[in-house]
Prior knowledge:
Elements: H1 3-32, H2 37-48, H3 51-57, H4 59-62, H5 67-76, H6 82-104, H7 109-114, H8 119-127, H9 132-146, H10 153-166, H11 168-189, H12 192-201, H13 203-223, H14 240-249, H15 251-256, H16 274-297, H17 301-315, H18 325-341, H19 347-355, H20 360-391, H21 397-407, E1 414-416, H22 428-433, H23 459-470, E2 477-480, H24 485-493, E3 501-512, E4 515-525, H25 527-534
Parallel strand pairs: 1-2
Antiparallel strand pairs: 2-4, 3-4
Helix pairs in contact: 1-6, 1-8, 2-5, 5-6, 6-8, 6-9, 9-10, 9-18, 10-11, 10-13, 11-12, 11-13, 11-17, 14-17, 17-18, 19-20
Amino acid sequence: MNNKSVKNRSDLIFGLLITAAVTVIGIIGLIFHEPWYEEAQPYLVARDASWYEVIFTIPHYEGHPPLWHMLIKLASCLGLSYELTIKGVQFIFFETMIIMLELRSPFSRVTKALLPTSFFVIYHYCVLSRPYAMLMFAGLLCAAFYDKRREKPIRYILVLVFLCLCHSYGIAFAGGIVLADITGDIIRKRSIGKAVSGLLGNKKLLAGYIALLAAAIAIMADIAPKQDTMATHLDRHYGYFVSLLLCLFFIPSEVFVTSFSSDASSIQDEVNSIGEIIGAGAVSLIIWGIIFIVCKKRKMLAEMIIPYLFSALVMSIYAYPHHSGMFLLYVIFVMWTATDKEPIRLSEFTDILKKIGVSERYALTYVVGIITLSVAMNVYWDICSYAREISSPYDNAPAAAEWIKQNHIDGKKLLIVWSDTDTNIYPDAPVTLNAYFDKNLYYNMEGDVAYVTHIKADEAEAEADREYARSFGAPDFIVCPYPLSTNVMKDDIGFEGEYIAEAYSGVAYRPFKDKTDEKHLYFICTRETYKELYGKDYEIPSYKKG
């Protein structure tokens, strides 16, 4: 056996060991995780909506291509429980993502060992059942096929279409990859004519790009928001240009080093201090500098700039901190394609420092120190998130569902609170409860469906909703995130009874990196209903007295 065969076998064993270790960690996270609204909503849509609605109607209100809903709908046909269905689909894509990183990527062993420590890889895109692991997997396939795109264009185009079908960000990223390829070719050949001639000479690739464009247009038409889509009417603290700057010079730092954001607020709404913005900006500039060094040497400046810029243009419209993993996907894609051209070495960065007078010893210390800091921060976030997952509920719905079943509450009149600005906006946890039952629990949800339609109610529709709710009389229970919200419903609808008794209350802890958001769920009823349920009078908790 020659040295190359021994090395390949050794690399394979190393990759398999890392894959096995990461898989075990991921399974532990999935077992302990209680799915929340963003995981329940696709399941409810997939379970209850028709195939036509899933493919052609609901994407206009969800804002994402229908592939994720379609896969869950197919999986739900197996007759598995809600959690097994969504976690099973999620695990498949998480596992394929890890296999791509560990067994297919061109990175060094050290890099392969460190990549899974990323908070977005090992926790957020692993434990939470959402389409981001699928998006990452599609992006990694694109990176794997990029180097041979001209020799084998069909598979390359197919994975780009797959990328578009995963997420709205995938459409932007795929477009950026293609434009970067064409622009980069023009720059390297220093001639538009030669680049165009080369593209025209590869008829399969050219036809593939045309087909990709047609597919992207069709997908964008399918997800284009309607006039009454709720998300198009939301207020924003930051305008588009400021949001774009945050995507470019705040998010990179948030992926690798800093933790200034809470996932409870969108990038457009969360207000960070000047110090946090400056600190994240400084770190982001260092990250961009590292990417620039790698790409400049390999004549990949177009590939460095365009793909993430395209993604940022879409993220600037609407993005939450968990979408920041899009930058991680971009970095892995760029570094993968750069490594295919020429392996990346530490000397590329230490040599830059030595040119400005830093000794070789300190240059190496600085570079290794930056890497160590990033890994240490991500491992810290991983530990915080997994510790919270294991020790506390991520969502209230599973425990509340058990209480409902034990006390036969699902046969009662349940009123879900709505926003004081829109009768079609509801709190997360009560909607998530619907996933544990085969029907909608609440008589006042829009269209009497178990999922949120994301259709904004105009004044006429809102009044019709109020009138419909009034026709049921006084509810048995009001389901809400905080007790005082019952006053909103009484004032809005008008019904008799003093709803002050907390028949059920639960608190969940939602981790994001080293931060935790508390989420509450209450079933509020009258004293009379409480006594019928528990056989005793309701006593106001001592902490609420006085």
